[in-house]
Design a protein that fits this description.
Number of domains: 1
Number of strands: 18
Helix content: 25-40%
EC number: 1.14.13.113
Cofactor: FAD
Pfam families: FAD_binding_3 (PF01494)
Organism: Microbacterium sediminis
Structural class: alpha/beta
Shape: globular
Distance between the termini: 40 Å
Radius of gyration: 21 Å
GO molecular function: FAD binding; FAD-dependent urate hydroxylase activity; urate oxidase activity
Length: about 400
């Protein structure tokens, strides 16, 4: 079977590897001209790591991942520890340690494993059509390619989604801006091996370890969309002025040229992921706020299910894609809603709700937070055997 994938991100490359391993002829196209992932890093919880293990990348991903043994919340203004606890129950329950990873490192690994000679960069898809036998993608340069199936992994502003759904779907602003990047390890912010988060007034500043003695930091600032500051680093410094010394130390360590500023938008959940021989996955199918850390993991789950179904079903590609849609849409949509609920709780859109959350953190043993994280993981299609622990 010939497969064309639009998008060389985590979802597209992982799907490409999964289908390639089944013996299919896969080519990936992307509009980018070089590997410049959006965002500094991502959270690979156990469900996402398991998919990468399944793709034969377990040793490589373990080498890229930061060792995150504990989690802590601190008062953003005083630096006081509100709660600190072990993340070992997550590993014990799921059978797999989670790993924060630098996005560029993971992206390069996936592209190399798929085969860079099979990835066509600088190819912007502008049109899609299909007949009973083939689906065809037309590119901005006038070229085209046809295949038995086309998979759109072309992100939040997906052109493939427009074709599948039959209309442009509006995205919703979630009410905050996220700043993120990579910095050298900084024990003034929090201990090595810990995911440390400072919270106050609906804002948060967090960091988790990644490979190479680095930290992935991310900071959320509620506010309107469309207000691009003259200096992202200056805006970040202003937003967290007067916060605890650990936060000030982190901001001082940031290279302004490497700082990312991202307005957080998502898509209402929807269940139309397939049109004949054309399907979508990843952000094209379930663009979500990052508040539950499952965006990349959900894309990896898509690739896992797609690969499993193509290895097991034989009634034709349209039938297999329809089964993929039924298997994934509800689960992915639920994670979008969980992300929204979490964003609402943590960003003081209702101040009383957020204050109650802060009070619940003080002196907590972490079991409720661990249950929440596990709730996002254990319903995954990778959750086989989770009842053992």
């Amino acid at each position: 079977m010939k497969v064309v994938i639009i998008g060389a991100g985590v979802g597209g490359t992982s799907a490409g590897i999964a289908l390639q391993r089944l013996g299919h002829d896969v080519t990936i196209y992307d509009r980018i001209r070089e590997n410049k992932p959006v965002g500094a890093a991502l959270s690979l919880w156990s469900n996402g790591v398991k998919v990468l293990n399944w793709l034969g990348l377990s040793e490589e991903v373990a080498a890229l991942g930061g060792r995150m043994d504990t989690m802590a919340y601190r008062d953003g203004l005083t630096g006081e520890t509100m709660t600190e606890f072990s993340l070992a129950p997550i590993t014990e329950k799921t059978g797999q340690r989670p790993y924060p990873v630098a996005r560029a490192d993971l992206q390069q690994l996936l592209m190399e494993r798929f085969g860079t000679d099979r990835i066509r960069l600088g190819k912007k898809a502008v049109g899609i059509d299909q007949d009973d036998d083939r689906a065809t993608v037309v590119f901005e340069d006038g070229s085209s390619d046809s295949a038995d199936i086309v998979i759109g992994a072309d992100g939040a502003k997906s052109i493939v989604r427009d074709y599948v759904v039959g209309r442009r779907m509006p995205r919703s602003y979630r009410g905050y801006v996220n700043y993120n990047g990579l910095v050298p390890a900084n024990t003034a912010f929090g201990p090595a091996g810990q995911w440390t988060t400072y919270v106050a007034a609906g804002r948060r500043f967090a960091a988790m370890p990644v490979a190479g003695d680095r930290l992935y930091f991310f900071a959320d600032v509620p506010g309107p969309s469309g207000e691009e500051p003259g200096s992202a680093h200056g805006a970040l410094r202003d937003a967290f002025a007067g916060w605890a010394p650990g936060v000030a130390s982190m901001i001082d360590s940031i290279d302004p040229a490497s700082l990312n500023r991202v307005e957080i938008w998502d898509l209402d959940p929807f269940h139309t992921w397939v049109r004949g021989r054309v399907a979508i996955l990843g952000d094209a199918a379930h663009n979500t706020a990052p508040d539950v850390g499952q965006g990349a993991c959900s894309a990896l789950e898509d690739s896992f299910v797609l690969g499993l179904l193509f290895s097991m079903t034989t009634l034709g590609p349209q039938d297999t894609l329809a089964r993929y849609e039924r298997a994934r849409a509800e689960r992915a949509g639920d994670l979008v809603e969980r992300g929204r609920a979490r964003a609402h709780e943590t960003h003081a859109f209702e101040p009383g709700v957020t204050e109650a959350w802060y009070e619940g953190l003080r002196g907590a043993d972490g079991s409720r937070i661990v249950r929440g994280i596990l709730g996002n993981i254990l319903e995954s299609p990778t959750g086989l055997g989770a009842d053992l622990a």
